[in-house]
Write a structure and sequence with these properties.
This protein has helices at 2-108, 127-142, 146-159, 166-179, 183-196, 203-216, 220-233, 238-248. The protein has 2 domains: 11-74; 126-249, Alpha Horseshoe (Serine Threonine Protein Phosphatase 5, Tetratricopeptide repeat). Mean pLDDT is 79; it is low at 100-105 and 107-122. With 249 residues, the protein is mainly alpha-helical.
Length: 249
């Protein structure tokens, strides 16, 4: 009897020994799967964080690009103004030499006349002094001496009321006063440029400057009107591009 049961007991014991490692292996498989799931979850979270950081960086870069576009448009407008000023200065200098040459020719070949001499005409402004005073004021403005520049440009407008530089002088006087936070004085000169010389190249920038002085005084209604007038009169100007951006904000 014992001899018959002994083979059965041995078989059962062997079967138990085989089942135990299989169960333990199943337990290890579950733990490994959970570890892999956790690792995948952590990796996915890290990737999402990187994507969010990249999106924020791209948004910030887009904002910086828009700001740079606005600044480039403003600088382009100022460059156009300065280029036009230089062209006018060169033209005035040439006109001065032509006028001087004509006067010398008349002195060399005076015409005889028996008539009584006419009254002496009012002396015209010296073009050389005019150009020199204008350039001196412009140099002060470029050097950041806004108070001196404002005084020099205003004095220029009084000393040379018929000067071709007059629109520029009023414009730069306004710009210097605006830097000094004299918004009322700046608005006066900006308005004069826009109203008296609407065809001048500075007129669009003068309206833009006028709107800036109005905004500084919290006159949002007036600023909006000035910007709308700028866009209506000078739609293709660089100042109009800045005006459209301001109106959107």
């Amino acid at each position: 009897m014992v001899q018959r049961l002994l083979p059965r007991l041995m078989a059962a014991l062997l079967a138990g020994l085989c089942i135990a490692p299989a169960a333990q292996a199943g337990l290890f498989d579950d733990e490994e799967a959970r570890a892999r799931v956790n690792a995948l979850r952590n990796e996915t979270g890290s990737r999402l964080d990187k994507l969010e950081a990249s999106a924020r960086a791209q948004l910030e870069l887009a904002n910086q690009i828009e700001q740079l576009k606005s600044e480039i448009a403003r600088l382009r407008g100022e460059n156009e103004v300065l280029s036009n000023d230089l062209a006018n200065a060169i033209k005035r200098q040439k006109d001065f030499y032509v006028d001087l040459d004509n006067r010398l020719r008349k002195l060399e070949t005076p015409a005889a006349s028996t008539e009584a001499p006419a009254a002496a005409p009012v002396a015209a402004a010296d073009p050389a002094a005019e150009s020199r005073d204008y350039e001196a004021a412009l140099t002060q403005l470029r050097g950041g001496k806004y108070k001196d520049a404002a005084g020099s440009f205003i004095a220029f407008t009084k000393a040379y009321p018929s000067s071709s530089f007059l629109p520029s002088a009023h414009f730069w006087a306004a710009s210097a006063l605006y830097q000094l936070k004299d918004n009322i004085g700046a608005a006066e000169h900006y308005s004069r440029v826009a109203s008296q010389w609407p065809d001048d190249s500075r007129a669009p920038d003068a309206l833009l400057g006028l709107a800036s002085t109005q905004q500084a005084r919290n006159d949002n209604v007036g600023a909006t009107r000035s910007l709308e007038k700028l866009i209506s009169r000078y739609p293709s100007s660089s100042a109009a591009q800045i005006a459209r951006q301001r109106l959107k904000k």
